[in-house]
Amino acid sequence: xxxxxxxxxxxxxxxxxxxxxxxxxxxxxxxxxxxxxxxxxxxxxxxxxxxxxxxxxxxxxxxxxxxxxxxxxxxxxxxxxxxxxxxxxxxxxxxxxxxxxxxxxxxxxxxxxxxxxxxxxxxxxxxxxxxxxxxxxxxxxxxxxxxxxxxxxxxxxxxxxxxxxxxxxxxxxxxxxxxxxxxxxxxxxxxxxxxxxxxxxxxxxxxxxxxxxxxxxx
Amino acid sequence: xxxxxxxxxxxxxxxxxxxxxxxxxxxxxxxxxxxxxxxxxxxxxxxxxxxxxxxxxxxxxxxxxxxxxxxxxxxxxxxxxxxxxxxxxxxxxxxxxxxxxxxxxxxxxxxxxxxxxxxxxxxxxxxxxxxxxxxxxxxxxxxxxxxxxxxxxxxxxxxxxxxxxxxxxxxxxxxxxxxxxxxxxxxxxxxxxxxxxxxxxxxxxxxxxxxxxxxxxxxxxxxxxxxxxxxxxxxxxxxxxxxxxxxxxxxxxxxxxxxxxxxxxxxxxxxxxxxxxxxxxxxxxxxxxxxxxxxxxxxxxxxxxxxxxxxxxxxxxxxxxxxxxxxxxxxxxxxxxxxxxxxxxxxxxxxxxxxxxxxxxxxxxxxxxxxxxxxxxxxxxxxxxxxxxxxxxxxxxxxxxxxxxxxxxxxxxxxxxxxxxxxxxxxxxxxxxxxxxxxxxxxxxxxxxxxxxxxxxxxxxxxxxxxxxxxxxxxxx
Lengths: 218, 477
What we know:
The complex is a heterodimer.
Chain A: E1 6-10, H1 14-26, E2 30-35, H2 38-48, E3 52-56, H3 66-77, E4 82-87, H4 92-98, E5 106-110, H5 117-128, E6 132-134, H6 136-146, H7 157-168, H8 172-179, H9 183-196, H10 204-217
Parallel strand pairs in A: 1-2, 1-3, 3-4, 4-5, 5-6
Helix pairs in contact in A: 2-3, 6-7, 7-9, 7-10, 8-9
Chain B: H1 2-6, H2 10-41, H3 46-78, H4 83-111, H5 127-135, H6 138-172, H7 174-177, H8 189-194, H9 206-241, H10 246-305, H11 312-346, H12 355-365, E1 370-375, H13 382-403, E2 408-415, E3 418-425, H14 442-452, E4 456-460, E5 467-474
Parallel strand pairs in B: 1-2
Antiparallel strand pairs in B: 2-3, 3-5, 4-5
C-alpha cells in the first residue's frame, strides 16, 4: 500500500465509533474524522475529501435512514467518494436505493462483519478502489428478489453463484477458491455472464459492475 | 264600590289599602310588562318563523322519508327469503340514516338545536362487510325510528301550528269579508271546536264582527306558542333519536382508550428496540470487533515468534488462549445474530419508513416469487403497521413452509378507514386457522392481535388451493 486510505467514520454509537477508529488506525488507515451525525459528516467530507466514508444507516435525529440519505447525497456531490454503509439490519430496499445509480465504490455490510477484521478491511479497500462490497445477506435477499424475473433465468445455476459472489465484490481468484474451481473456469463463467447480459467487451472492470447492476435491477 | 264601603272606615284604611295595592302592582309590574312584551313580540320574533319553517320543510321530508322507508322495508321483508332482501333492508337503514342527518341539520339551522353528529358510517370492506355494518348500525335504525315518528309529529305540527295561524288570519280579516255573506271553507281549530256552522250560522251584527276580530287577535298571539309546543315535542324526540347513540358513545370512549393502550405499547416496543440497537447491540459489535482484533494479534504474534521458540509449555498455553479467544469471538457473533432476530421480532426496523418498504422487503426476502401490490393514501398508526407487517411475515413464512406454491402475492389496499391485506398463493390449500403459522403460537397470537383492534381474519383454502387469507385492519387502532 503506497498511500494510506483516508477514511471518515459516521456512527452515532460512541463505543462502536471508538472501536472502529482504533481498528482502522491499527490497520494503517488514516482517519480524517469520526462523527456522530449526518450534518457533521457532510461538512467533514467537504473539508477533508476522504477516500471512503463509513456510514451508519440509522443516525439522529429520527434514527431511521438518515445515514443512507446523507450518503446518497454525498455521492451526488463527490463522485469519487467510496461509501460503505454499515447497518444492524439488511433491507433490500436500502441496497436497491444505494445501488440505483452506480455500484462502483459502494458497500453495504452488516455491522457484525467488523468482527472479522481482515474481511472488513478488505471490503474498505475494495470500496476505496471503486469496487463493491455487498454483505452476503444482501446478495441472498437480492437473489431471492430477482428469482421471479426472466433476465436472471438465462443464467445457469453455476453462473448465478459466480454472479452473486461478484456482487459481493469478490475478485475472480477469490471466487475460484470459494467455489473450489479453477480461475480459468471462473473466467469462462464471467465471460458467459457478460455475453448473456449483452455487455460490451471494453472496460472489463466496468463490465463487472454492470453485470452486478443488471442482476440487482432484475 | 270600594269607595262606598270605605266611606265610614276612615281615610287611614283607604290609604293603607291603596299602599298595598300599589305595592303589589309595583312588584308585579315589571313581570307583567315583560310577559306582555313577550306575548306581543312573539308573532314577529325570528324564532317563531324559523320554527314554522322547520315544521313545513320537516313535514315535506317526513312524507318522502316514510315513503322511502315503508317501500324499502316492505320490499326487503318480502324478498327476505332471498339474500337480496337483506341488501334492500340494509339500503333502507342506510337511507334512513341519511334522512336522519337531514332532519338533524334542519333542527340545527332552524331550531338552533346543538345535536352532536353521530359517528360517520364506516363499513367494513367488501359487500358482506358493508351489509353487516349497515344492519348493525344503531344510528341508522334510530334514524329510521325518527322517520317513523316524524309523521305523527308533522301532522300534529300542521294541525296545531298551521290551524292557529290560519284562524288568526281568517278571524282578523273577518270584518272585511264577513258581511258579504259568503264564507270560505274553513278548516281551523274553531271549526273543530264549535262545529261546521260556526262561521255561517247566521250570526251577524257589529258586535259579532268585533268578537270574531278579537278572537283573531287571541289566535294571532297564541299561534307562536302552539307551534312552539309541537316543536318542543319534536325537539325531545330529535334529541333522543338523532343524537349519538349512548351505547355508541360508550363504545367510542372504550375504543379511544384501547387505541391509546395499543399505541403506547407499540411505542414502548419501538423504544425497547431502539435501546437494544443503540446500547446492547452496539456494545456486542464492539466486543466482537475487539475479540476479532485480539484473534488477529494472536496470529501475528505467533507468526513473529515463529518456530524459533519451540517451548512446548508456552505453545500449549498459547493454544489455550487462542481457543478461548476463538470461542469468545464466535459466541459474540452468535449473540449479535440472536439479538438482531430478537430485536426484529420486537419492532421491525423496516417499518420506520413505512409499511410499503417493509412489505417490499418481506416480499423480496420470500423464497417463493412474491408480487406486492400496495396502494395506501396515508400511513396507518405504527401499531397497525406492526400488526400488518407481522401478519404478512407469518403468512409468507407459512406459504413457504406448507403450501408448496409456485408463486404468491400480497395486496395491501385502503378501503375508507380500513386496511385490507390479502395474501394469496397457488399452493395445495387445505389450510385451517389452527394449522397456520410457522410456530404454534405464531398465527394464533396474530389473530388475537388482529381481533384486539377490531380487525378480521379470514381464510379461504379449499383442497388443492388456492389459499387466500384476508386480513382487515382499521387504519387507526
